[in-house]
């Protein structure tokens, strides 16, 4: 019940100001956000590599309102890629990007987002890594898939995300499960209407399983983004049934969530990639993490009250 309320608050400027300024917020934010700067995130990439984990790095900040902010977002990713190159960490880290941050919701946003994301994808390819386009709310997805297709003409390894809660996703999965593709399946983190998305958790889980099967039976590289123990076990089973070796798909989890399980799966021989968000504009990302687990909200409330 609380999830939709928190997701609605994630779009409110008043709540953004209140929560950002509340004493105790930082302590909870730090659990999910790896730092504010490139220099703070680099040791985390190295630490992950030492534990047999890979990462996908997300510079947070989707709520931009001007083309200048979109260009600054592009530059933040270029700075990150430059630093990974200097440190020889290119093959340990890929990038996750939200096209909204590159200007997708502004006037002429589709073209602007494509123009901003292309140099990031190019720079990633130069250092031997790649970019995955995150899935945002359903109204942005046709544009995201078109940009994905466009980028794949020159950079076929560019990945994208699909969300199990959307009715459209099984069709998208079938279309995307072709040779050379990289597709992350997640449950979905936005507040979506019943006209486009399953609302019931059991229905979402069943749809997730159907999509894992499509991806495993297809020719592409499935990336399973979930912390759900049942879905992880089902993925292993469907991977085996499809005759895939352990390095022919990967698990992905979020920084700060089920860290022991991340290490356990990597130690079993699975590829495990940790989605690691950093930056100063953490509000939207943080609120989605609160919405996913009501216990986080209790922890957050307690931390504010005890400050
Ligand atoms: P759940 O049933 O929500 O969680 C299973 C268990 O995991 C919970 O019982 C709990 O123990 C733990 N857990 C899950 N979430 C939390 C949390 N926030 N805090 C503490 N414990 C938690 N969504 C999008 O819409 N677009 C994207 O591009 C996108 N990218 C993602 C990338 C990755 C790598 C991951 C892991 C998730 C991504 N998501 C994205 C979020 C996703 O849609 C879900 O909201 C999120 O993963 C929670 O779903 P779950 O599969 O972990 O299952």
UniProtKB/TrEMBL annotation:
Gene3D superfamilies documented for this protein: 3.20.20.220
Free-text remark on how the cofactor is bound: Binds 1 FAD per subunit.
Binding, substrate: 98, 288-289
Keyword Oxidoreductase: yes
The organism's place on the tree of life at top rank: Bacteria
GO-annotated biological processes: L-proline catabolic process to L-glutamate
Protein name in UniProt: proline dehydrogenase
Natural source organism: Streptomyces finlayi
Phylogenetic placement of the source organism: Bacteria, Bacillati, Actinomycetota, Actinomycetes, Kitasatosporales
């Amino acid at each position: 019940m609380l999830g939709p309320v928190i997701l609605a608050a994630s779009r409110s400027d008043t709540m953004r100001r209140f929560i950002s300024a509340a004493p105790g917020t930082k302590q909870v934010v730090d659990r999910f956000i790896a730092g504010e700067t490139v220099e703070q995130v680099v040791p985390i990439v190295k630490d992950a590599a030492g534990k047999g984990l890979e990462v996908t790095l997300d510079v947070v900040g989707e709520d931009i309102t001007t083309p200048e902010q979109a260009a600054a977002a592009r530059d933040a990713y270029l700075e990150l890629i430059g630093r990974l190159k200097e440190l020889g960490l290119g093959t340990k880290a890929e990038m996750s990007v939200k096209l909204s941050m590159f200007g997708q919701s502004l006037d002429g946003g589709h073209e602007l987002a494509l123009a901003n994301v292309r140099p990031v994808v190019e720079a990633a390819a130069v250092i031997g890594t790649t970019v995955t386009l995150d899935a945002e709310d359903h109204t942005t997805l046709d544009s995201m898939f078109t940009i994905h297709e466009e980028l794949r003409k020159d950079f076929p390894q560019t990945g994208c995300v699909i969300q199990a809660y959307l009715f459209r996703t099984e069709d998208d999965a079938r279309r995307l499960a072709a040779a050379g593709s990289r597709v992350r399946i997640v449950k979905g983190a936005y507040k979506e209407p019943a006209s486009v998305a399953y609302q019931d958790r059991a229905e979402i889980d069943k749809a997730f399983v159907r999509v894992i099967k499509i991806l495993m039976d297809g020719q592409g590289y499935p990336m399973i983004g979930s912390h759900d123990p049942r879905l992880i076990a089902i993925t292993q089973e469907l991977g085996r049934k499809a005759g895939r070796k352990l390095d022919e798909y990967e698990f992905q989890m979020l920084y700060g969530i089920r860290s022991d399980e991340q290490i356990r799966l990597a130690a079993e021989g699975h590829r495990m990639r940790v989605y690691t968000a950093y930056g100063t504009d953490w509000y939207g990302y943080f609120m989605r993490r609160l919405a996913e687990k009501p216990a986080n909200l209790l922890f957050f409330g307690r931390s504010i009250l005890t400050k």
